[in-house]
Amino acid sequence: MKTLFTLPAAAFAVMLAATPAGATCYAEYKAKQDNPLKLHYGVMELGNACPPGGEAQAQIASRLQRGGWVLLNVISLFEGTPSKAQQQNAGSNFLRY
After folding, report:
1. Does the record carry Signal as a key word (predicted)?
2. Is residue 72 within 8 Å of residue 32, measured between CB atoms?
């Protein structure tokens, strides 16, 4: 009887170990450059957990600024896999920053 109990317990433990602790957080954003004016939409990976709104915005703005871009707005923060439409719409700005 003991082996019947430990086998399901061991299988459950393996399943928990294989499950990721948290889903990856992504941000959809719009950014610009001046002289000449350029606009872009992008999707950025923020890490394993979505930071609170203000922190996320500061992180996104900082990363874009290094590339010469100014953050216009954060469209959304989401966990999970970006859709094909998001990937296509972002084009070369998909996970660029």
Report:
1. yes
2. yes
Q: Mapping DSSP to helix (H, G, I), strand (E, B) and coil, where does residue 46 land?
A: strand
Name the nearest CA neighbour of 90 among 24, 49, 25, 31: 31
**Which single residue is written with the structure tokens 């317990």?**
9
Sheet of 70-79, strand order: 38-47, 25-33, 70-79
Q: Six-digit token pair at 37?
A: 């004016």
The domain locations on the chain are 22-93
* 10-residue stretch averages of pLDDT, the chain, 97 residues long: 47 39 88 96 94 90 96 96 96 96
Q: Which residue has the tokens 């872009």?
A: 40
Residue 45 is which amino acid? E
- The residues pairing with 44 across neighbouring beta strands, listed in sequence order, are 27
d(C-alpha 12, C-alpha 19), whole Å: 11
Residue 39 pairs in a beta bridge with 32
